[in-house]
Amino acid sequence: MMGSGGGGTEEQMYLEKVRQLSRFIEPLTCLIGRIGDVDSEKLSKMKIMLDILSNPSKRMPMDTLLKCEAVLEKMDFKKVNYNNPPAATPLLSLLETIANQARSPYINHTLQRTFAPAVNSLIGCDIAAPTAPKKRLDSADDDKADELMYTIEREVANLYPRFKVDLDQLHLFGSQDLHLICRLEDKYLPSVPSLRIVVPRDYPRTAPFCDSRQPDYDVSGFTRTVLQGLSDRLRHMPHRFTVSQILNCWEMALRHACKPSNSSNDNASNRDVSALTVALGV
Question: Where is the ARC105/Med15 mediator subunit C-terminal domain positioned along the sequence (predicted)?
């Protein structure tokens, strides 16, 4: 009975020692991987110890376990021995390619060509700031020009929709006055050529100018009648008047020229024009 009890105690001690040494299995495995084939003798001994620790069912003398424990306790598992290169991985070739490209003098061009389309699709292209306008010497003239443009824009915005006003592109530069091209689009009135008006730089202190010699109106008796009616009305205008008043006179001249009674006598409309009729807009 005593012999059986003593054998059970030794068995328990053996298993307990194997359990204690099992903590060396993982670091010993890593150390074997770092050593590689540099030191085959030391590698063989480590593999034997790893086999002993990994197979508890493979019985070894207790003295052997104690010797393994003594050796393992003295080993420095954190130190990398022999400066071996890392084990080859599928990503190693990719990393080497990237490292070689990073040392290339064309790396910026390569990155731009590769990633720029995708980045632009995600965040859009950079928007360059507008070029700063050149500083002009006469700031007073700039202020007057801006004030004149603002005055005209505000007046045009309040016109009836049948009046269309645009800037004459031929006189945008080199002139301090504004040259306007005006159109009258009314489905109840016949179409007539555009009317050209010149707005002086100190408008509205100075009245705009509408030349009575409009080349586009010298095409038919009807258009000449319209232009003559406009000229007659402008002669009865007050000292100061606006672009809106010229356009209203233009419309009244067109309506008056459309009357059947004016077809026989082009001068009939001229005798009906007075300061009062102009002021009343008729």
Answer: 151-256
